[in-house]
Specification:
Helix content is 18%, strand content 19%. It is an alpha+beta fold. Keywords: Disulfide bond, Hydrolase, Protease, Signal, Thiol protease, Zymogen.
Length: 285
């Protein structure tokens, strides 16, 4: 069951979190939200919908890369990089995994560094060179009602070597590259410092039955079986009634959670949230 955690017995002894946990006297801000810090970047507040494809690893990567490209260019390169490219084309030596069956976040960032990513937004937006090709399901967006979800994982789309029809730029001239990729240590202060300086990062955590019940509040795993893993973006952090949390962006649509975002207990590596962070820096020239 999901509950508001401040009254939960799991927090008994919560103040004894040990070294590495920022205190109220820390140099790091007690509250941070990348959406407020860099309002000029259109990618940061964006919430995507992966539909019936386990492509969160690709979306969290491409979203974070887009955020960092905008932030580190001072807002001069404000675009959306293609999760579709990672999902469908990260194969061979740098194989990211199984596409819609799940993938490896670190390999996705390495692909960005070696091959670059063209632009590409959501299915609904049809933005850029290679937008997402999988439609949402079971919802109405604007005037469009999408078919019901089938609760089955869709096959991975094929890798296209060119931009969509009508896009005016050649794919190789549309690519943006990374210059570095980092697997961050399981250290809250280092994670916060990286996000505060350079922008959102990708993290992957364990998903249990009770996470599917999340609607609002600060999540902590209390019960249920492990279902797999989910990759998301760390947008920031905060405190609620003395309880520290991470602010994260999911890719299950804006209807889910807190307008597509959620909060997780911070400072105790809840469900591995702090042990699997990946970041990198964009090439600007």
């Amino acid at each position: 069951m999901l509950r508001t955690l401040v009254r939960d017995p799991v927090l008994a002894g919560f103040k004894d979190l040990g070294p590495g946990v920022p205190t109220e006297n820390s140099d790091l801000s007690q509250f941070f939200d990348a959406r407020e810090r860099w309002p000029e970047c259109m990618s940061i507040p964006q919430i995507n919908d992966i539909s019936e494809c386990k492509s969160s690893w690709a979306f969290a990567a491409a979203e974070s890369m887009s955020d960092r490209l905008c932030i580190n260019s001072g807002g001069m390169i404000d675009t959306i990089l293609s999760a579709q490219e990672l999902l469908t084309c990260c194969t061979g030596v740098l194989s990211c995994g199984e596409g819609c069956g799940g993938g490896n976040a670190f390999k996705a960032w390495q692909y960005w560094q070696k091959h670059g990513l063209p632009t590409g937004g959501s299915y609904e937006s049809q933005f850029g060179c290679k937008p997402y090709s999988i439609a949402p399901c079971g919802k109405t967006i604007g005037n469009v009602t999408y078919p019901a979800c089938t609760n089955t994982t869709l096959p991975t789309p094929s890798c296209e070597k060119k931009c969509r029809a009508g896009y005016p730029v050649d794919i190789d001239n549309d690519r943006h590259y990374g210059v570095s990729v980092d697997q961050l240590p399981n250290n809250q202060i280092e994670i916060q410092s990286d996000v505060m300086l350079n922008g959102p990062i990708e993290t992957t955590f364990e998903v249990y039955d009770d996470f599917l019940q999340y609607t609002t509040g600060i999540y902590v795993h209390l019960s249920g079986n492990k279902l797999g893993h989910l990759s998301v973006r760390i947008l920031g952090w905060g405190m609620w009634q003395g309880v520290p949390y991470w602010l994260l962006a999911n890719s299950w649509g804006k209807e889910w959670g807190e307008n597509g975002t959620f909060r997780v207990l911070r400072g105790v590596n809840e469900c591995g949230i702090e042990a699997n962070c990946v970041s990198g820096m964009p090439k600007l020239g």
